[in-house]
Write a structure and sequence with these properties.
single chain; 97 residues; alpha+beta; four-stranded antiparallel sheet; 3 helices
């Protein structure tokens, strides 16, 4: 698994979240290797997204896609994010049952 974390500064987290839910989520769900996507209101004017993909190439493709989508849809609300990406080195999840 590979994760991309994008950290944004915004004065309108609610509007950014609304636009991402309406426009970005339906698209990223269709991306090859997609596992999960999370949004965290990180306090103050910080807003963070976390994308999880099967491979590094898929995660990098999601960064390119996210940059293009954000540039057309939310750049005025958020500016350019700081991006951290890499392989998952340790992981735990609750199992069914």
């Amino acid at each position: 698994m590979h994760i991309s974390i994008r950290r944004y500064k915004t004065k309108s987290g609610a509007e950014l979240t609304r636009r991402v839910q309406a426009g970005f989520l339906p698209l990223i769900r269709q991306a090859e290797g997609f596992i999960a996507y999370y949004v965290v209101e990180s306090g103050g004017d910080a807003w963070t997204s976390i994308s999880v993909f099967e491979t590094a190439a898929q995660a990098e493709a999601s960064n390119t896609f996210a940059r293009e989508w954000a540039g057309a849809n939310v750049l005025a609300l958020s500016g350019v994010p700081d991006v951290t990406a890499g392989p998952v080195m340790a992981h735990a999840a609750k199992t069914a049952g």
